[in-house]
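Possible race condition, two jobs.
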Amino acid sequence: MRKIGSYISCLVVLMTLVQCKSSYSNAQSSSERLALKNALSNEGIRFDAVSASPQNTAAYNSVANDILIQRGDNANRINLQGQGYSLRIKDDEVQMALPFYGERRLGGGGYNQINGPFNFTGPVKNLQVVTDEENNVLVVELTTQNNTESMDIDLKIYSGDFATVYINSAAHSFIRYTGIVDKIKEEE
């Protein structure tokens, strides 16, 4: 009987400790989200890509695995760390410098684009910023366009400044990027 009592006591103490840590991180991430939300309105935010995860199709997989395996990547996740790929949202403008992996659909301005489909500066349209308190996520949704296509961008910012960018385009297959988000510094 004493063993059961000591197990229950340990369980209660453990649950109390877990709850205390959880509430601290929620308060901390709430202030981080508020700071980034304010930065979006003022100095802007910058997303630095760490990896890309393209939509997998049979055609993409058959080509990509042969090419990417030489670098240690695979068709599901491509390492972009340290290569300077980013997305910036400042004022009413989006600056994209992200690589594209995946399939290009018909239309969309040709195959020989000099800067690629996700390397341009475009206008911000339909900007929505929503705080999801239940999941501790700041969600930034917008639409932008380059010379040939329009695309929807969803930026989800989690605690610790970890973020995910989802890009859905009419002329290119879906792609997801993971990385770090921060305020744009004055010298940038």
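Job #2 (started ~2 s after job #1):
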Amino acid sequence: MDLSNENSLHSQNLTDFGRKRRSLVSGTVGAVLSNFAAPESAIAKPAALQQFLVASSKLTGIDDLDPSLGSAINEVFTLIAGENTVVALCKEITDAGRNPSSLTEKLAKHGLASSARALASFWYTGSIEVAAGFAQHPTIQRYCQGGLQAVKNSETGAISHICLLTYDEALVWQSCNFTKPPASCGGAFGYWQEKPETKPK
């Protein structure tokens, strides 16, 4: 069975994401994601999609990212992190080449390390932490309808929300190609008896 075909079966229009919401353990998400303060402007212009996808691909190590999902992540992440931060992040990642240590140093030098971790986590988990003030923002409502979960920070007591953009399309399922999202069928009855095919390296 070609697992790449299985992944393609999950590619749907973002309007279908509302039917694929799942709950994530808020404590785990909170430990992974960074908290962002509201940007100066609540109307942030997303970075150019192609540049964002190229940078995201280098950051996550996954080629051929879904442009539709990438567009939504770009828009939500830009709203939360701020346009200037996203543009700078994309530039530093793109200019860093293929050297991981060089990228780590550049991001740390420009104060972008936490933003990079949050973006990578967004791609891999399909979710991101949103400041309470953004919970009713049109962009959040459009992409995360039915997926907002209130979370209280155990240290500060601040209330944030987890925006669950997607579950089935999260990159964790591509990196773990031996499994699939729970409750998602992997093929015809009896498919589990077949040895999973692996992509050539």
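The chain has nine helices and three strands.
Logs attached separately.
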